[in-house]
Design brief:
The structure holds 2 protein chains of 2 kinds.
Chain A lengths: L12 E5 L13 E2 L3 E15 L8 E16 L2 H5 L8 H12 L3 E7 L8 E10 L13 E8 L4 E4 L1
Antiparallel strand pairs in A: 1-2, 1-5, 3-4, 4-7, 5-6, 6-7, 6-8
Chain B lengths: L2 H12 L7 E3 L5 E2 L2 E2 H4 L3 E4 L3 E8 L7 E15 L7 H9 L10 E11 L2 E12 L1
Parallel strand pairs in B: 1-4
Antiparallel strand pairs in B: 2-3, 4-6, 5-6, 6-8, 7-8
The chains are: A mainly beta, B alpha+beta.
Chain lengths: 159, 131
Amino acid sequence: MAVINVTDGSSCILAIGNTAVNGAIGGVNALEVPFINDITVNASTGVTRYKVLDSSSEKAFTTPSTNQITLNCLVDEDVFFGNAGGTGNKVVNDGLFGASNDKTLVYFEVGFEGSASGDKTISGQGYISGLAPTVSMEQAVWQTPVTIEVDGNLTAGSI
Amino acid sequence: MSKRTDLISQITTNIAAHTSFAINEELPFLSGGIPLYEKNMRTIYVDEQQIAVDELYDTLDGQAVNQTTTTINAYLSVDAKEQLTDIDTVVANLLVARNGIANTIESTSDYETDIVNDVITYTFEYNFITV
């Protein structure tokens, strides 16, 4: 039992691809998003509460989850706008902006501990949304939020 | 070019019309125990630049983006008894010399004065922040 510490600079990884293979951490064609400031895996279920006559407390059941991956990152030219000379991964070619613009279904994997065998991950598929690149003289490097609106379940796994 | 070189170039431009003043590219070292700017009054000396690097953006993959703060002092001494008529303009031109330095996200300048005997010394401080 131990906390997961990401301060070594190689533990937290987000890989994206146009197929599950291309979206796997360590995959030859995976797009691993650099310069991530923060990342959040949202796996929040809905809740319905109801009252019954024979109980002094509410009853509850959970409803389907709204799953999202949200992050903020600095804008890398190739990752945001795409690298035409890239690989067989359409997301690499189109970049985050292109994948968002084209509504491309992307596959992703979030590495919690790194890329070594047995390291824990959460994966799924979804659509890139929420891009809002911004820059100013006070914040002189382009920075953007990114949301992956997850289509279906998140899956816990390991590398 | 260093920010100091750029600043010297800009100050040279800004005081060109004020022929009573000059700028010297030498550092303001002590000569015979006296700073050069006190020895050569009405000549501006720009000190060596001081640089501090701070982390601007931290990232989870360890590829931090840094910002660099460059601090430069400049000195000008004049006769306190008989101030030149254009000293206010010269001081103003020295303050705005920071505007001519490119590729900064922020620049500031200020000055303070110190009078010893019959010499008034203007000490300017310039700060330039770059990413």
